[in-house]
Design brief:
140 residues, mainly alpha, globular
């Protein structure tokens, strides 16, 4: 995901999608604007590959728009699981994306969502937990 070069227009195009998603209520459980969700899906399908690009977009949304807290990060990560029972704008975008993909691309989507969750945990949650350990002491 960080391997996407900032030198070409690829990151700029993806950052436009990031900003559009960031304007939605991404942690909430209500769909606030179905037409905006559908437009975002169209942009993703038109401008991005599922492998890598989607990870960049979803990680960037988390990094830029999720208010730093353990619970907020966990909520966001749960929204990345299509199979987990949750509602909201982000889930609608992901389900609509899955419905529009060719069947052979569905495993790639699931793998990409899993990779994004792992990236969030590794790069955002782990340092957050390390700070809490220093502040409060470790459990063991």
């Amino acid at each position: 995901m960080p391997y996407i070069s900032g030198e070409n227009n690829k990151r700029k195009e993806m950052d436009k999608i990031v900003r559009k998603i960031g304007k939605l209520d991404i942690l909430g459980n209500k769909v606030t604007d179905m037409s905006k969700c559908n437009k975002i899906v169209e942009l993703i399908l038109k401008k991005c590959k599922i492998n890598g690009d989607l990870n960049y977009i979803l990680f960037a949304v988390c990094r830029r728009f999720v208010k730093p807290s353990y619970n907020n990060y966990r909520t966001y990560m749960s929204k990345l699981s299509i199979t987990y029972h949750t509602e909201g704008n982000l889930r609608i975008i992901l389900i609509a994306l899955a419905q529009r993909l060719d069947k052979e691309k569905i495993p790639d989507l699931y793998a990409e969502l899993d990779c994004c969750n792992r990236e969030i945990y590794h790069r955002i949650m782990t340092p957050h937990e390390d700070k809490a350990i220093k502040r409060n002491g470790d459990v063991v």
